[in-house]
């Protein structure tokens, strides 16, 4: 249970005289709240979890009693492990720990991936008193005979940022690793340091192997002073807009943030994606060069910047030479950048825990109130931020999503146990593995299947008759290639050709899709042009440019999913406001009423709810789901959260696709599901699926829907590699293995089971989809069909785009697209005589293609590799798939006959197809650029949703 008492004001009295003297020398006169509450239980030897904001002295809270226990005692081996998820230990933390070591005559050392071989040997033969390490380095340490001897005297384990580890496979791996440590050292005290979480008892059980844990929790919500602001453009914003090259609406956001920075001594500006960080930094840089804003210095910090660049900006901000720092989630972890008295969150933080972690960084030095501002950009963003702010004050924090039963982690740790012992009985391995909380409920047959898979992959020997698992020649290589549970994705170093230094990194996906010579992009708040891409060395060479155009790097994994409870409260807000409008309430009166409950001024709430007064159709809410639109583009508006909407959208798309024999395009956000239907489906079909699908069948239907899909392929590759089934699944310059091949290779294996488990854990909430169907079918939620798209239904279409990119950002991209399409090949096929068929570059296609055999202009333009379509047209007896292909070919030919080469170009766009090509061609435009911009928009839409297409 969480500790709720005030705690001992004389907490330092629990420490020995030597430590108290050092405290006095260090200037620690009054303990912080975590120290008051937790030092006593830790000093008494209790397993303890300390839940408090970053910067409240948590490190000293844990380590002072540990130092006190170790000081003045003698031992051969390591007395305490300090495990941190940070790849490189925070430099400030290292300096602090080393200061204590010097004062207390304790040897404190660090061990991670960059530690030299000499230092590692020295740590084994002459172990330090305290070793600071990472989960991965601990794995390696446990396999060394001398390091195991060095760990035999271990009495304390401190796990920093345990909330971060608990929600990852790294944490599941560490949980077993700590049980392996217990095999070497016997019982030891475990201490966890955590940011605010919704289920501290569960995190405590994760930390200790469910052996009992004292939870000391600092209430953050009651000391949170957060205001949600949706700026209203002013006359001043005209000047700001001109200075930074944007519209007044966007300028008002930058202006409000700049004013907050100017009004405070040290301000962190948190954003949700790295691309927003870069774009916003570019805006602040242009503002600084003008006289339209305050005289402030703002830097940028995120994980794709080179370590040197990150360290430089950390030191500059800490020294007071920067007024503000734009940062991403990397700054949520324990990086000390000095005094912070205000936090700005740009756009909704998406989760309660993120708001608490981020704003909790402000004002903590003297147990002050944590002050922050959430700057929102549209009504839905504001409603979401309001819901999160209220939930934060009420302490309604999301639970940590612990990876229970991850099979690839078990495979990794089976190999670790074999490395530890040489050979081990299967029963003993099972007992050690299941002592770790994430695997407490795993049955013996699951572990047996995992071991058999490892044996088939030549990772271990399995003697089934003797129930014995032992090492083989490939065990050592396998284990050391898989020390980390972080998926192995390629990143390209970005190097400045002019300065000869590294700027940062780019994800492989962005390089493959976008980084061609001549492309411009933003990184480190500056603009760069790609000079060369070297796939063998995985480097992108760039040159700095002054041109204001630039495409923001499309880092992967950016979207923070909105939890279902937050989305549901947004729906509740919409319902309450709509009901008050129905009772004759005015916008001003309703906003004033809501301001008593939610953290915003009435003016912001008025802007957030004004559109609700204008919608005459049924308003979607926590009790009403609407189906809106006509023709092919249909939206289901339901407040299910990101993963719930993705799950329900997959169900609808899969079942409609099965019924119509056509692929259904689908995209989802926390509040709506956008569907692109074939001609023979409409809203009534969507409604029928929602009203008739058995909620108990959701999980198996979802599993069927992802079989062979690209969305599952990467996870299958990653899991298979962790099992040793794919030795080198990624080679430079080659495509990844297809989903269908992977499915066929690993179906009915622990590898496939784990890929599915992980996919559901990270991407889909089957329970939320099932609950939504039950609520519809029981009448708990109304289901209404709305004829046309409404403002709420379309709010998400552009809501999550990175609109902060420079105005000319698409210019270079469109030129690159035009050049690419000109060089791309197209297959031309005459549907009239069926004799002519040829591949050629589009630049060599005539303005009005015609058949050289029969003179017809009915020429179908297909993908260059598409040999099936001409074969289908020529077939005398056609199956259903060939009939569909024939219809598509004739539609393509009709477009080319009517619009010539313009149709050929549109049809060559990736993911465009004849229906979208027709829309693009028939749209009136003032210039050719807009034609290519529409193709680009469609290609981007396809890239975002292609994982949901068959």
Automatic annotation (TrEMBL):
Residues 39-215 form the Helicase ATP-binding domain. One of its GO terms (molecular function) is catalytic activity, acting on DNA. Keywords: ATP-binding, DNA damage, DNA repair, DNA-binding, Helicase, Hydrolase, Isomerase, Nucleotide-binding. Residues 253-408 form the Helicase C-terminal domain. It comes from the Archaea. One of its GO terms (biological process) is DNA repair. SUPFAM superfamilies: P-loop containing nucleoside triphosphate hydrolases (SSF52540). Belongs to the Lhr helicase family. Lhr-Core subfamily. This is Helicase. It comes from Halococcoides cellulosivorans.
């Amino acid at each position: 249970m969480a500790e709720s008492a005030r705690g001992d004001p004389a907490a330092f009295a629990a420490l020995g005289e030597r430590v108290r003297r050092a405290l006095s020398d260090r200037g620690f006169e009054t303990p912080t709240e975590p120290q008051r509450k937790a030092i006593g239980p830790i000093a008494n030897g209790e397993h303890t979890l300390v839940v408090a904001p970053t910067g409240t002295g948590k490190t000293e809270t844990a380590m002072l009693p540990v130092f006190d226990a170790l000081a003045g005692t003698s031992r051969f081996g390591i007395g305490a492990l300090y495990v941190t998820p940070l790849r490189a230990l925070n430099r400030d933390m290292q300096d602090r720990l080393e200061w204590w070591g010097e004062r207390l005559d304790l040897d404190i050392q660090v061990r991670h991936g960059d530690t030299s071989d000499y230092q590692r040997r020295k740590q084994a033969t002459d172990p330090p008193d305290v070793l600071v390490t990472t989960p991965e380095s601990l794995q390696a340490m446990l396999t060394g005979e001398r390091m195991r001897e060095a760990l035999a005297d271990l009495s304390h384990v401190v796990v920093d940022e345990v909330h971060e580890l608990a929600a990852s496979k790294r944490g599941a791996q560490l949980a077993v690793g700590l049980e392996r440590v217990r095999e070497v050292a016997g019982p030891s005290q475990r201490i966890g340091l955590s940011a605010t979480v919704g289920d501290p008892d569960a995190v405590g059980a994760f930390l200790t192997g469910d052996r009992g844990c004292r939870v000391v929790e600092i209430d953050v919500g009651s000391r949170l002073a957060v205001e949600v602001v949706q700026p209203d453009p002013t006359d001043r914003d005209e000047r700001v807009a001109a200075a930074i090259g944007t519209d007044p609406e966007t300028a008002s956001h930058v202006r409000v943030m700049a004013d907050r920075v100017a009004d405070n001594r040290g301000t962190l500006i948190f954003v949700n994606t790295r691309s927003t960080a870069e774009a916003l930094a570019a805006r602040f840089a242009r503002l600084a060069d003008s006289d339209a804003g305050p005289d402030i210095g703002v830097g940028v910090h995120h994980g794709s910047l080179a370590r040197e660049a990150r360290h430089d900006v950390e030191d500059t901000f800490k020294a007071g030479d920067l007024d503000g720092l734009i940062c991403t989630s990397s700054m949520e972890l324990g990086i000390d950048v000095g005094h912070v008295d205000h936090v700005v969150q740009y756009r909704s933080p998406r989760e309660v825990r993120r708001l608490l972690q981020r704003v909790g960084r402000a004002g903590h030095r003297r147990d002050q109130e944590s002050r922050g501002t959430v700057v929102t950009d549209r009504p839905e963003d504001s409603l979401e931020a309001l819901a999160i702010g209220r939930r934060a004050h009420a302490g309604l924090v999301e639970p940590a999503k612990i990876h229970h039963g991850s099979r690839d982690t078990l495979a990794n740790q089976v190999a670790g146990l074999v490395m530890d012992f040489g050979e081990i009985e299967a029963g003993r391995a099972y007992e050690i593995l299941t002592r770790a909380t994430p695997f407490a409920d795993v049955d013996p047959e699951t572990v047996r299947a995992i071991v058999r898979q490892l044996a088939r992959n030549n990772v271990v020997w399995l003697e089934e008759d003797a129930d014995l698992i032992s090492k083989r020649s490939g065990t050592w290589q396998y284990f050391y290639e898989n020390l980390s549970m972080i998926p192995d994705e390629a990143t390209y170093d970005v190097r400045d050709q002019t300065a000869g230094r590294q700027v940062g990194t780019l994800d492989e996906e962005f390089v493959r899709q976008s980084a061609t010579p001549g492309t411009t992009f933003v990184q480190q708040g500056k603009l760069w042009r790609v000079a060369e891409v070297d796939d063998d060395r995985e480097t992108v060479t760039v040159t700095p440019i002054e041109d204001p155009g630039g495409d923001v790097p499309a880092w992967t994994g950016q979207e923070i999913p909105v939890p279902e409870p937050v989305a549901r409260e947004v729906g509740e807000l919409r319902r309450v406001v709509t009901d008050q409008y129905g009772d004759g309430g005015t916008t001003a009166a309703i906003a004033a009423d809501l301001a008593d409950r939610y953290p915003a001024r009435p003016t912001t709430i008025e802007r957030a709810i004004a559109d609700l007064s204008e919608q005459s159709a049924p308003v979607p809410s926590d009790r009403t789901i609407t189906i809106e639109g006509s023709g092919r583009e249909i939206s289901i508006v339901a407040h299910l959260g990101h993963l719930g909407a993705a799950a329900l959208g997959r169900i609808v798309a899969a079942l409609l696709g099965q019924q119509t024999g056509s692929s259904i395009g689908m995209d989802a956000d926390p509040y709506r599901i956008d569907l692109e239907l074939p001609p023979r489906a409409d809203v009534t079909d969507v409604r029928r699926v929602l009203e008739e699908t058995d909620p108990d069948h959701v999980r198996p239907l979802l599993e069927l829907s992802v079989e062979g899909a690209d969305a599952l392929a990467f996870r299958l590759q990653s899991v298979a590699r962790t099992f040793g089934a794919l030795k080198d699944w990624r080679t430079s310059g080659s495509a990844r293995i297809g989903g269908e091949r992977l499915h066929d290779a690993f179906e009915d294996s622990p590898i496939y089971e784990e890929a599915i488990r992980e996919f559901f854990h990270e991407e889909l909430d089957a329970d939320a989809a099932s609950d939504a169907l039950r609520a519809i079918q029981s009448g708990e939620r109304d289901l209404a069909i709305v004829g046309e798209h409404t403002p709420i239904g379309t709010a998400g279409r552009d809501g999550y785009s990175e609109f902060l990119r420079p105005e000319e950002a698409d210019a270079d991209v469109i030129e690159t697209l035009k050049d690419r399409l000109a060089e791309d090949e197209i297959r031309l096929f005459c549907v009239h005589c069926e004799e002519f068929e040829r591949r050629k570059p589009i630049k060599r296609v005539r303005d009005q293609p015609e058949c050289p055999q029969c003179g017809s202009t009915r020429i179908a333009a297909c993908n260059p590799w598409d040999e099936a379509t001409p074969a289908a047209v020529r077939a005398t007896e056609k199956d259903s798939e060939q009939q569909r292909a024939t219809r598509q070919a004739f539609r393509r030919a009709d477009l080319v006959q009517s619009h010539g080469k313009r149709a050929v170009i549109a049809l060559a766009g990736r993911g465009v197809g004849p229906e979208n090509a027709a829309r693009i061609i028939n749209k009136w435009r003032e210039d050719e650029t807009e034609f290519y911009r529409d193709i680009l928009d469609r290609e981007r839409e396809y890239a975002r949703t292609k994982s949901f297409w068959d």
